Amino acid sequence: MSPFGRYMFSFVLFVFLVCFCDGSIFQNDRVTVQITNAVGGGVGLNLHCKSKDDDLGSHFLDAGQSYEFSFRPNFFHTTLFFCKFEWGNESHWFDIYVAKRDLGICDSECYWQIHPSGPCLMNTITKEYSICKNWNKQLQGSGNNRGGE
Question: Which of 25, 33, 67, 79 could crosslink 99 through cysteines, CB 3.0-4.6 Å?
Answer without folding.
Answer: 79
